[in-house]
Design goal:
Length: 247
């Protein structure tokens, strides 16, 4: 498979702290790639640089054949590199359907008409319903998002991201704050995306990572110590020592 994302010798320091230390990664198109590591390993700093929220000191980021190292976050998003955050960010006074329709409206260049009229626009509502169906929440389309459970709100946020038609998703702790049932529901939403959208996922829930990921990279002190399949990572002695703390 071709690589959609290639990171070469990425570096980011904050004073004496080397948050990203010669980080190199290659992500294959259409796969789910896990990024794991102990607390303070630099995972979120790495995601921030890939999304354009934080500029690296040195190194290169190539996405879909383009050097995007110095592109701002909005330009990367327009090019198909989208990021979700640990903290849910929705329009709380609107319904689930409204939230997804707004994302479609912004992406497709619709004019922002008075929202009451926009709710009657089938070119917004029909695709929004399709996306809600994709994440399994079409039955809650007309519920205000404030009435939804935390896991359902995270799924709405994912639906809004899918509405932008991304080539690749950067997911930072998609299971954060979820219970077992909610995590399972989110896994069942993410699994069918494999092969259609590339996903780089930072996640502390190892059951989720090993169940979903095609490959996993392990970060320690800002550096990738190994990349491999879930089985290879499970049996790697360096991972057990550095990540799991075993001798």
């Amino acid at each position: 498979m071709a690589n959609i994302l290639k990171v070469t010798n990425l570096n980011k320091s904050f004073g004496a702290l080397h948050a990203t230390d010669n980080l190199s990664l290659e992500i294959e198109e259409g796969t789910i790639h896990g990024l794991i590591g102990p607390n303070g390993a630099g995972k979120t700093t790495a995601i921030n640089q890939l999304s354009g929220e934080l500029m690296p000191d040195r190194g290169t980021i190539e996405f879909d054949g383009q050097d995007v190292t110095h592109w701002p976050i909005f330009k990367r998003a327009q090019f198909g590199l989208q990021r979700s955050y640990q903290i849910t960010s929705l329009f709380p006074d609107f319904t689930a359907l409204d939230n997804v329709a707004i994302a479609i409206q912004a992406t497709d260049g619709h004019s922002f008409r008075f929202w009451g009229k926009a709710r009657e626009d089938k070119s917004l509502i029909d695709p929004a319903m399709d996306i809600l169906r994709q994440v399994g929440l079409d039955h809650l389309a007309h519920r205000p998002v404030t009435d939804l459970a935390h896991g359902q709100q995270r799924q709405i946020e994912l639906a809004m991201t899918l509405a932008t038609k991304p080539k690749m998703l950067l997911l930072d702790e998609p299971m954060a704050g979820m219970g077992k049932t909610e995590s399972h529901d989110m896994m069942e939403v993410l699994r069918p995306l494999k092969g259609n959208i590339t996903i780089l996922m930072v996640e502390h829930d190892m059951d989720v990572v090993f169940a979903l990921a095609d490959k996993i990279s392990v970060l320690v002190r800002g550096h990738c110590i190994v990349t491999g399949t879930p089985d290879e990572i499970r049996t790697n002695a360096d991972v057990r020592t550095a990540y799991l703390g075993e001798g």
